[in-house]
Amino acid sequence: MDRLAIIGGRPLYGDIPISGAKNSAIKVMVATLLSEEKVSLSNVPDLADVRQLMRLLENHGTIAERDGNRLSLHTPKITSRVAPYDIVRKMRASFNVLGPLLAREEEAKVSLPGGCAIGARPVDLHLKALEALGAKIELDEGYVIASAKGGLKGAEISFPFVSVGATEHTMLAAVLAQGKTVLQNAAREPEIADLADCLNAMGAKIKGAGRSTIEIDGVTSLGSVAHSVLPDRIETGAYAMAVGIAGGEVILTNARTELLGAALSSLRETGLEIEDSERGLRVKKNGKKLQAVDIVTQPFPGFPTDLQALFMAMMTTAEGTSSIKETIFENRYMHAPELARMGADIHIDGQLATVRGKDRLKGAPVMATDLRASMSLVIAGLGAEGQTMVSRLYHLDRGFENLASKLQNVGALVERVPETD
Ligand code: UD1
Q1: What does the pLDDT look like over 368-388, one tens digit per residue?
Q2: In whole angstroms, what separates CA 121 from the centre of its chain?
Q3: Does one domain contain both 200 and 309?
Q4: pLDDT per position as a tens digit, 81-103
Q5: Which ligand 1 atom sits nearest the alpha carbon of residue 162?
Q6: Do residues 275 and 178 share a domain?
Q7: Domain check: are 30 and 165 in the same one?
Q8: pLDDT > 70: what percent of the chain?
Q9: Do residue 173 and residue 187 come from a single domain?
Q10: 157 alpha carbon – ligand 1 mean position (Å)
Q11: Over the stretch 145-160, which tens digit does the pLDDT of each residue have?
Q12: Of 3, 172, 221, 391, which has the fewest CB atoms closer than 10 Å, so is most exposed?
């Protein structure tokens, strides 16, 4: 298991290419299970989560071929209706194969994804929505056993609260259902519109994705498509904040401001300059200290929970006191004690974190706890004095493509080193 050694204090200058969005790529990959024809995806990041999902799809009969950032997936026949625990437990989003298997095969057995470091993360909304579409669902020994003899049927479904996964999963199940499905209080994340664009290009009839009411007219089959995955807004925000903490001026190629939602104004309020340019997003720190800004995490277009840890890292050296409220996940402050090891002044009280800005953090050995939290330690290290050693790099490999080389190319002193103990 590698670690990442970072020597802080070097400003960043140059270009960082933004990869395709992990959270979109893995959903469109699952969507390909709905078609007997070959689907070609481009701008697919080469990440552990993507490789993991390829393994799962192959288990269901998909012929998968990768060529750089292109991925071709072809499932002429579903060869297994079972998604085993060993694969599903490693990546929660793989639970979403349940809907497509059910839609295409009328039965499926999929392992429950289990808990996760950032909170309980149940799948009750997913299961209720599938039941509303006519599926019979039983739970047995950690597996969901589902059947829909005669096919799924369109329904009106109103989600009690916003869930990205449940919105996407229900969409995946409803495209091949008989009749019309209407989703109320749907999530509006850009990845949902990307998934709908891909499905519509395959022949689905989805209207309103990206808004809170989505209408889906069921079709009998889906065809082939070539789809390019949208740029990763979380990776975009992460590198923008790396500039915020380390200083410098960087172009995030392929990135777009409109994907950032409320994160854009919060980042600008700190004093970071962020503009669209011909080649992508230009991010500049003007030499002055960043200002403390308060944030509350919300579903899109609100401030994304996936950038909360990174924003907190940036606030540890801002001018003033920042209050951060996490409303999406109940246990998403695990990076705070690690940042404190670097000298950060953070006080946690339930959902609320208060961060008092310091002059500078000091490098320290720190441990990554989940994907986004790990990146907050990396960017904290880029601004800190001395060396920061981030262990448990496998978390970062799940979600940040070519992290070390992207940072090295803009002048950061970072290096992967083999774990010694
Ligand atoms: C997705 C993203 C994740 C992001 C999150 C919120 C992927 C692969 N992951 O996760 O990076 O942090 O959206 O933007 O796209 N909940 C329930 N019951 C359910 C479903 C969800 O109680 O059936 C709860 C969750 O525990 C959480 C909240 O709803 O507290 C939001 O979760 P959700 O939007 O579903 O997140 P994911 O789709 O898991």
Answers
A1: 888 888 999 999 999 999 999
A2: 15
A3: no
A4: 999 999 998 888 999 999 999 99
A5: 34
A6: no
A7: yes
A8: 98
A9: yes
A10: 18
A11: 999 999 999 999 999 9
A12: 221
